[in-house]
């Protein structure tokens, strides 16, 4: 039987609005100077007053344990959790928050790393890029959004990541657009890709990496899927209706679901 998860009562010490309807929330322990350590890709469970639980990736630097940082996108057609956090949280609010856990780990490797983020899917990849940047490992962060005007955390990203490792792609700036299939068609044998974003973005990358070795492709979904969730391998996981599931699909079935936009 799995041991129960630690639930901490953390205080909101800062909030700020980001473009794209995103609220950034910074949390600290009211008595302890340091919070439990976490790895990039980790998430926490935030317990809401009505008993609902929502999972959010930690997007801060894993080396800075004095606080946790999450970014919450308001989902107009969601189930109310994001709306409550946007409307009900302010500095001083106390939230029950779980200790971090990681279903989307950054694996050790010597080859280059491609981080592909769509919109709010930047949150776990921002934490990964901070670690890779500090370690001096070869990587590129590609950030795809509709426009600079709706790109959450853009200022943070541009300040934290060396410009030679950052690629920004905006739908309304043709000169910045990047064809995902072309980006992923030529790869080094030991390259790894990590991606997170909305369903259409996920589907495009799933199609482009269908012939990659499965142990080199890692992903997490940034929004709950509206259809049955199917994964490339049992080691992959993502949020589905607020919970995480594992499957053993065939590669052919994964590609079929990706083409339908259900990935």
UniProtKB/TrEMBL annotation:
CDD domains cross-referenced by the UniProt entry: PDR_like
Domain of life: Bacteria
Keyword Iron-sulfur belongs to the record: yes
InterPro entries in alphabetical order: FAD-bd_FR_type, FNR_nucleotide-bd, MRET, Riboflavin_synthase-like_b-brl
Key word Flavoprotein present: yes
Domain (FAD-binding FR-type) ranges: 5-107
Signal peptide start and end residues: none
Alphabetical keyword list: 2Fe-2S, Flavoprotein, Iron, Iron-sulfur, Metal-binding
Protein name: Ferredoxin reductase
Species, as recorded: Rhizobium brockwellii
């Amino acid at each position: 039987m799995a041991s129960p998860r630690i639930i901490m009562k953390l205080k909101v010490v800062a909030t700020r609005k980001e473009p794209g309807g995103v609220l950034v929330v910074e949390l600290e322990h009211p008595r302890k100077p340091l919070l439990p350590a976490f790895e990039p890709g980790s998430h926490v469970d935030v317990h809401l007053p009505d008993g609902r639980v929502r999972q959010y990736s930690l997007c801060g630097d894993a080396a800075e344990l004095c606080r946790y940082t999450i970014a919450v996108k308001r989902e107009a057609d969601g189930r109310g959790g994001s709306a409550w956090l946007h409307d009900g949280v302010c500095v001083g609010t106390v939230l029950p928050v779980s200790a971090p856990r990681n279903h989307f780990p950054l694996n050790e490797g010597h080859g280059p790393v491609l981080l592909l983020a769509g919109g709010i899917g930047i949150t776990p990849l921002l934490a990964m890029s901070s670690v890779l940047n500090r370690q001096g490992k070869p990587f590129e962060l590609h950030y795809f959004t509709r426009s600079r005007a709706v790109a959450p955390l853009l200022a943070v990203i541009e300040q934290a990541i060396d410009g030679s490792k950052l690629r920004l792609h905006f739908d309304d700036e043709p000169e910045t657009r990047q064809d995902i299939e072309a980006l992923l068609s030529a790869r080094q044998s030991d390259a790894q890709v990590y991606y997170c974003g909305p369903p259409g973005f996920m589907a495009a990358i799933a199609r482009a990496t269908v012939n990659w070795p499965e142990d080199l492709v890692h992903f997490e979904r940034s929004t709950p899927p509206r259809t049955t969730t199917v994964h490339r391998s049992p080691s992959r996981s993502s949020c589905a209706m607020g919970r995480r599931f594992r499957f053993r699909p065939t590669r052919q079935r994964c590609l079929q679901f990706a083409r339908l936009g259900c990935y």
